[in-house]
Design goal:
The chain has 314 residues and is of the alpha/beta class. It has ten helices and seven strands. The radius of gyration is 25 Å and the shape is elongated. The two termini are 27 Å apart.
Length: 314
């Protein structure tokens, strides 16, 4: 019996997954039939017949929607398109490769109903190659240690959100791996649940070894946004202070050695100190400019309402 209440949006980004789409649709439909739902597919510039398959499903099922990117833009862009167009009060994201089990959908919704804003999946028993599992384990421990966010599987694509979360965060680059960090920066309440993970039935992973390098740089971006997006001088100022200290020390050392001890051959130290000193001044001034930009943005009336917690009792 379908629940005619709130709408559940299930977002599935895909890229060259034509062999799995029909089966995935059947499994999601079977699990979600108890809910009032929409199924939002985002074709990330596939070169196969995936888009045509979803178009055929749309003719049979009005709950199916499709958004097609002109070329492959990456998972973050595909998710962001899904977020922008999802109409549901609760939004669930999952991968199209059949490794995420649609039977977990009800478990995500139950957790959302407990009052959480974001529910993160945790693939306890991953059905992936050893190399991928080891890299993922290191990545998750490192991110958890640095950010203080106690999650076991940041990169799991199986997640559930309240609508307010997806309308607040902006996902770009490869930032889909760090959605919990972005959500945490706005104060959203998170938890995680263990989810069943299947072996890949068709095709192969679309992520190569370059994802590790991209992931590192995106982590730095996410970490900066988490701690310093509203106070950039606290980050830039530290770098400037270190450079200023080093430059001043080298200059003072050169002056002391020249005039107190009469030593020669210290010009390299003096010029190095001068370099660090002038660089520090530039860095510090950049920090001040960044603070002025933030202040001007706030003065013009930035939307701080995104930090207000929803009244779930009303």
């Amino acid at each position: 019996m379908m629940n005619q209440g709130r709408l559940i949006s299930i977002i599935v980004p895909f890229y060259n997954e034509e062999l799995s789409l029909n089966q995935l649709y059947q499994e999601i439909s079977k699990e979600a039939e108890r809910y009032n739902y929409e199924l939002v597919f985002v074709d990330d510039g596939s070169a196969d017949k995936g888009g045509a398959i979803i178009n055929e499903l749309m003719k049979k099922d009005k709950r199916v929607r499709l958004f097609t990117l002109r070329r492959n833009m990456g998972k973050s862009m595909a998710l962001n398109i899904g977020f922008q167009n999802a109409q549901g009060d609760v939004v669930i994201t999952m991968d199209a490769d059949l490794q995420d089990d649609p039977r977990e959908v009800s478990n995500f919704i139950k957790k959302i109903d407990e009052g959480y804003d974001l529910v993160n999946g945790w693939k306890i028993n991953r059905k992936d190659p050893l190399e991928k599992k080891l890299a993922s384990g290191f990545f998750n421990k490192f991110v958890s240690l640095i950010t203080g966010i106690k999650l076991h599987d940041f990169n799991c694509g199986f997640k559930a959100y309240r609508k307010c979360v997806i309308k607040t965060i902006k996902v770009y680059g490869e930032m889909h791996r760090f959605i919990p960090i972005l959500a945490n920066s706005y104060g959203f309440i998170m938890t995680e649940i263990p989810v069943h993970h299947n072996r890949r039935s068709y095709g192969k992973s679309k992520f190569g070894s370059e994802r590790y390098l991209h992931g590192f740089f995106d982590f730095l971006s996410a970490y900066f946004l988490l701690g310093y997006s509203r106070r950039p001088f606290h980050f830039i100022g530290v770098v400037g202070l270190l450079s200023l200290t080093l430059g001043s020390a080298l200059i003072l050392y050169s002056i002391m050695m020249k005039f107190c001890y009469g030593q020669t051959g210290i010009r390299p130290a003096f010029f190095a100190g001068l370099f660090f000193f002038t660089t520090a001044i530039q860095i510090i001034m950049t920090g001040f400019v960044a603070e002025l930009v933030i202040y001007g943005h706030q003065k013009k009336g930035s939307d701080d309402s995104v930090y207000i917690k929803e009244d779930t009792k009303s």
